[in-house]
Amino acid sequence: xxxxxxxxxxxxxxxxxxxxxxxxxxxxxxxxxxxxxxxxxxxxxxxxxxxxxxxxxxxxxxxxxxxxxxxxxxxxxxxxxxxxxxxxxxxxxxxxxxx
Length: 99
Hints:
Structural class: alpha+beta
Number of strands: 4
Distance between the termini: 9 Å
Order of helices and strands: EHEEHHE
Strand content: 25-35%
Helix content: 25-40%
CATH architecture: 2-Layer Sandwich
Largest sheet: 4 strands, antiparallel
CATH topology: Alpha-Beta Plaits
Number of domains: 1
CATH class: Alpha Beta
Shape: globular
Strand order of the largest sheet: 2-3-1-4
């Protein structure tokens, strides 16, 4: 199993829109394309720059499944819309879960 982290921050005024996009667009697309689970974590306080930090954690059966989903039209289009709201360059990391 592989876990992917996608971390960034948004203006507090855009927080509800990002959450809506996650629930309506990103989560269904990921799940339809083989993602075993996906969660959006949001900071409870703003950071030093006044931004709301967020982290999407997704679990995948393989890196091939992850790459296929991330390259799909549905996910690509959703990420383009989300990236327009980001105020920090996103950081992504992928980890393998060792049994």
